[in-house]
Each structure stands twice: as C-alpha cells, then as structure tokens.
C-alpha cells in the first residue's frame, strides 16, 4: 500500500533496513551495529531530556492530587479534622469553561489571491471535522492539563485505520508525563530544539502487530500498578507515571510484576536531523559526461525513530510533509525563555493549604466546645465508657473523688478574621477570579454603566491572556490539520456541512499531485452533492471544480468569549451602530450570534420588498395603507 511507506499511525510499517537483508549474514530481526548506535543515540537523548525535565516535574503528581482534593500530605489522627474546601477546583472550573465553551471560529486565509475559493472550502472541511469528532472536548482536556500542570500538549496525527481504511485526522490531548522535549527548546518546532521524545507504555500485542518483523524481540518491560494497596505502598518509589491512566514507567531491567505486565515502553523520537548524504549526479559538459556529487539532507522532512527493548522498530523520514513534530503546546503562565509554564495549582496551593488548616482548626475547636474532655479520679468508681454528653445525665461517683469536665477551648476572633482575609481577598488576588469574573458582583454604590464595564474589563485581563494563549495553540493545531488534509486526502470523500440555519449540505473533496511546469502542484477537486426535491435522493453533480493550490493557507482562529457581560456589551454597541446605519441587520445578527439568522434576514427582506411594492402603488405623498411598523431586528427592547 502506498500509505505504508509513511509509517503513520495505524499503518503496518514495513521495516526495510539491513536487518531484513539475508546477505549481511544475520537473520531478520537481529540488531546491526548501525542500529545499536541509533539506539544508544536515542537513549542518550532520552536521558538528557528526562534529567532536564526533573527541574519541573517533581510536583506534577502533587498538583494532580491537589486538584482532585487530596490536599493533606500527612496522616492525621481520626479525632482531628482534615477538611478540604477545594477552591482550587472551583477556580479552574470557572476559568476553563469561559475559555472553551464556544466552538472556535476557524477561517483559512489564502497566501495567494487565486486560492481564495479553495480556502473557503478548507474552512468548511475543518469546521465539519471539528463538529463530527467533538474536538471541543479535546481542547477542554488540554485546558484542564494547562491549569493543573502549567503546560499541556496535543498532537495531530493521521490514522490509517479510520474511515474504512482510507484514514483520517486524529487530534488528541497528550499526557505530558510521556513527553520529553530537547532541553534547549523553548517551544515545539521553534528551530532551537532538535528533538522531541515520546516514551509511552503500550500493549505488547498491538506493537507486535504493528511491527511483525520485530515481534520476537518485543517483550513486556513496564511494571503495572493496578492494585490500590500496592500502588500506595510503592507510590513514592516511582517517578514517571501518568495520573490519568495509572500507568507507571519503572526504571528497571525487569517489570515489577511480570505476571501482570503486558506493556512495553515504546520510545518515539522526532528529530530535526542535519545528517547529510552525497548523491551522485551526471551532467553533460562540452560533450562529455561528468560525474558530480551533490550533498543533500538524508532526512529532508526530519527523522522518526521508534525503539523498544533496546531494538529499533522503525527508522526513517518524518511521515508528514510539513516537516514539523506533530505536537503543539499551550502554557498557563509563561516563564521567560523556558519551555514549561506555571499552572493555577502551583500558584494557589499555598493559600489553599492555609484555608484547609484554618477550617479544620475551627471544627476541632467547635467539637471540643460541644464535647469537652472529662476529668475522672481513678477512685471515683466510674465506668468512663458510660460517660456521654447526653442532656440531664446523672453521674454517680464515690465520695471524696472528683468527676468534672474541662471548659471548652475558646475560638480566638483573629482566626475568623484571617480566614476571611485569605478567602475574600488574598485568594482572589492570586487567582485573578473574583465576584466580577463570576458575574456575582453587586456594586455598593450607584456606578455608571461605563464604570461597571471598565471594572468588568479590568477584572478579566487574565482570562483574556489565556484566551490569546488558546488562540495561538489552536492556530498551530489548525496548520497541522491543513497540512494533513492536503497530504492524505487523496481519495474522494464526502464532507458534511452544518450551515448557520442548521440545514445540512454535502460535497465531495480530494487532493491530488500533478506536475505543472516541471514543478509538483497540488490540485483540489470538489463535486457538489445535491438533493432531488421530488425523490429526496442525493446525487453527485457531473461537473467538478478544480483549484490549483499555489500558495500556503494561513489560519485565523477566533475563540470568542462566553463572558455574559462581554456579550451584552457587544450587543449594546452593535444596536447603536445599527440604529445609526453604520452596520446592516445581517451584520448585527452576526455579532449577537442570533440563531437561524439567515431565515430571519430572508423574512426581513421579504417584508421590506412587500412594503416597497405597496408604497409604489400609492399616490405620491400618501402613506401606504396597512403598512406595518419597522421591525425591531435587534431583538432587544427599544
């Protein structure tokens, strides 16, 4: 199959190095000296990247537990309260929905003016894929990872198993515990970092099916901690594990529990390789044939190497023509010139711990006040097991002995004052989320509308910053999606479009490569699918539209905002512009995101046409009888 040469996800990769050549004297599956050097190179890269990442990942597991509510490190006695008022969770779940609730507006922009119509087609294709695959959930996962750890990753691959074997895009969030960037990198594909490594435990059976020629060399080597008690016992001994799926990467020669382990650690290295080779070419000069040597890159798209158990499973070109590592990252708060960012949990863990301790102390005091300690002499002849806090209880004791209760501990006023200071002031300052951000602000004075708008804008500066980070992240993702579509959509396939009025339309689309003027040119072919109004059957139009793709397609991503005050403010401004005639009703309905705006506009045009026709039949200067008042297209009270 033609697609197998790429070694893309889901394809059975034929391994074509010297290990399969019987002439070298070694049976297939053996490791050559060249492969041993490759394995050593990848392991050295992995070791350097792992050591560098230790400067950042030492608290990642702690952050994840903190987010879930496991915020007490020490074991406390059962009679002491260990309360958790998880404001960290509340803060993150306030920020992320504001960023991800609305589907991003995806618009491709042509680099060459002649590609304008094709760019509109690509916009429709990307929007269709986004809705069909529910990629908003993937963005949500990345947002939560970003808030917890400070950094999140996503990938855009191509899986040949999808869509009945012709393949399709795969956009998914990646577990940052499994990714190791070049220590020199500041971003993925920044031309500074030379490699990116993924080290992920995978099922042995699946890897053997993917690399059948190497199946005999693939053995389980990753320990499995599926039992909770075992996991708790050894928890501190293992550094690299995913909190999402409880997979543990064990730095051992043998798995911790061989009878339970069915996974192997697969290391995939994406390398921006500078390795070159000399290519022999022949040129005719003065009637003589001269042999020349031309130096070129051995891996023009970059290099992809896959190893497991110390053996090379795959070694070849990067399968993607955009020459990029198929990953993108997003950070919560940037650190200058550093790859990883800072997340919400790291910033909020300190005040959260203080809040938990203060509330637990208050509960301890309340319990001691309501049920204080008993003091009983040893000769009081009292069965202390029968002492209770029941109202009106009678306690009989021996004469001359003492049985009494200590007075309850008094709660000092500064405790509540400190708690109020942290929760109502310091915590909001650190998190950047307050009553204004949450829409629960009630002004104590009569503020003007402009003053309230300015207050709301100021209160959400951090959210807008995160929104810009999200737009940059999605732009990188979208560029990789466009590249995958142009590279792999070589077989005609049907694309479904859901229009703004909720109607559905279809068209066929594919891309092919042709030699035009001695250069390779991508040609996009599009066929419209129409529905017979009588039978309701769908048919493909015989006519096809072809587009010569001459330039690169740029991408514009608008994430929008779901902040209620921002939407209301935009609607108010748009209404004033409509009344002043600066914008038309169609633009106004677009701004306020009016449902089925096309039908509304069509009805408005029909009504205006009817009024114009009626006015034309009336004598000059007389109003049209029965003319309806001008409709309120704003949908807002006038």
DSSP helical segment count:
15
Chain-averaged pLDDT: 78
- Quantity of strands, as a count: 21
Principal-axis shape equals flat
Strand content: 15-25%
Q: Main β-sheet: number of strands, strand sense, barrel status?
A: 5 strands, antiparallel
Strand order of the largest sheet: 4-5-8-11-12
Tell me what you see in this structure.
This protein is an alpha+beta fold. It has 15 helices and 21 strands. A 5-stranded antiparallel β-sheet has the order 4-5-8-11-12. Strands 16, 17, 18, 19 and 20 form a 5-stranded antiparallel β-sheet that branches. It has a 3-stranded antiparallel β-sheet with strand order 3-2-13. β11 (303-308) and β12 (311-317) form a beta hairpin. α3 runs antiparallel to α5. It is flat and about 130 Å long. Mean pLDDT is 78; it is low at 1-7, 12-25, 224-241, 250-260 and 633-638.
Set down the secondary structure blueprint.
Blueprint: H1 33-57, H2 60-68, H3 87-100, E1 105-110, H4 116-132, H5 135-149, E2 151-159, E3 168-174, E4 179-181, E5 195-203, H6 204-210, H7 228-234, E6 240-241, E7 248-249, E8 263-271, E9 276-285, E10 288-297, E11 303-308, E12 311-317, E13 327-331, H8 344-370, E14 374-376, E15 403-405, H9 413-431, H10 435-438, H11 449-459, H12 461-488, E16 493-498, E17 504-516, E18 519-531, E19 538-540, E20 545-549, E21 553-558, H13 564-579, H14 585-591, H15 597-617
Antiparallel strand pairs: 1-21, 2-3, 2-13, 4-5, 5-8, 6-7, 8-11, 9-10, 11-12, 14-15, 16-17, 17-18, 18-19, 18-20
Helix pairs in contact: 3-5, 3-8, 8-9
């Amino acid at each position: 199959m033609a697609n197998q040469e790429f070694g893309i996800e889901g394809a059975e990769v034929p391994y074509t190095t010297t290990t399969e050549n019987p002439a070298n004297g070694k049976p297939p599956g053996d490791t050559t000296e060249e492969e041993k050097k490759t394995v050593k190179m990848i392991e050295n890269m992995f070791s350097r990247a792992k050591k560098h990442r230790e400067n950042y990942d030492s608290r990642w597991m702690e952050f994840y537990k903190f987010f879930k509510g496991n915020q007490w490190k020490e074991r406390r006695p059962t009679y002491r309260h260990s309360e958790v008022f998880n404001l960290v969770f509340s803060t993150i779940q306030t920020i992320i929905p504001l960023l991800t609730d609305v589907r991003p507006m995806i618009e491709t922009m042509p680099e060459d003016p002649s590609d304008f119509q094709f760019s509109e087609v690509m916009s429709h294709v990307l929007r269709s894929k986004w809705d069909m695959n529910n990629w908003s959930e993937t963005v949500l996962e990345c947002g939560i990872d970003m808030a917890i750890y400070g950094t999140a990753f996503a990938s855009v691959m191509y899986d040949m198993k999808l869509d009945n074997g012709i393949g399709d895009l795969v956009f998914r969030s990646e577990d940052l515990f499994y990714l190791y960037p070049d220590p020199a990198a500041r971003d993925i594909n920044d031309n500074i970092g030379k490699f990116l490594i993924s080290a992920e435990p995978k099922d042995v059976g699946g890897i053997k099916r993917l690399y059948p020629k190497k199946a005999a060399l693939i053995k389980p080597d990753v320990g499995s901690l599926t039992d909770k008690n075992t996991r708790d016992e050894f928890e501190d001994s293992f550094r690299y594990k995913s909190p999402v799926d409880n997979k543990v990467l064990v730095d051992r020669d043998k798995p911790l529990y061989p009878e339970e382990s069915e996974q192997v650690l697969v290391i995939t290295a994406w390398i921006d390789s500078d390795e070159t080779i000399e290519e022999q070419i022949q040129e005719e000069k003065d009637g003589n044939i001269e042999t020349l040597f031309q130096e070129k890159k051995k891996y023009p798209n970059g290099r992809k190497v896959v190893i497991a158990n110390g053996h090379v499973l795959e070694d070849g070109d990067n399968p993607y023509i955009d020459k990029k590592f198929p990953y993108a990252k997003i950070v919560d708060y940037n650190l200058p010139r550093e790859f990883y960012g800072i997340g919400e949990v790291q910033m909020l863990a300190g005040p959260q711990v203080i809040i938990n301790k203060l509330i637990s102390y208050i509960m301890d005091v309340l319990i001691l006040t309501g049920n204080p300690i008993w003091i009983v002499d040893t000769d009081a002849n009292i069965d202390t097991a029968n002492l209770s806090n029941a109202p009106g209880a009678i306690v009989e004791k021996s004469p001359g002995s003492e049985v009494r209760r200590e007075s309850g501990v008094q709660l000092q006023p500064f405790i509540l004052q400190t708690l109020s200071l942290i929760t109502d002031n310091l915590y909001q300052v650190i998190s950047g989320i307050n009553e204004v951000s949450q829409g629960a602000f009630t002004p104590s004075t009569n503020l003007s509308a402009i003053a309230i708008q300015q207050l709301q804008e100021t209160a959400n500066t951090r959210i807008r910053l995160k929104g810009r980070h999200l737009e940059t992240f999605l732009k990188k993702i979208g560029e990789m999606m466009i590249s995958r579509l142009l590279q792999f959509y070589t077989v005609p396939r049907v694309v479904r479009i859901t229009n703004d009025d909720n109607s559905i339309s279809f068209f066929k689309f594919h891309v092919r490569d042709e030699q035009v003027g001695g250069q390779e040119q991508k040609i996009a072919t599009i066929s419209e699918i129409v529905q017979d109004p009588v039978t309701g059957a769908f048919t493909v139009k015989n006519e096809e539209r072809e587009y010569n793709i001459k330039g690169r397609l740029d991408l514009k991503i608008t994430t929008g905002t779901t902040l209620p005050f921002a939407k209301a403010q935009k609607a108010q401004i748009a209404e004033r512009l409509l009344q002043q005639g600066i914008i038309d009703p169609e633009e106004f309905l677009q701004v306020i995101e009016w449902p089925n705006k096309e039908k509304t506009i069509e009805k408005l045009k029909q009504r205006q046409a009817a009024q114009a026709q009626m006015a034309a039949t009336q004598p000059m200067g007389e109003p049209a009888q029965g003319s309806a008042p001008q409709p309120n297209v704003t949908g807002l009270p006038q």
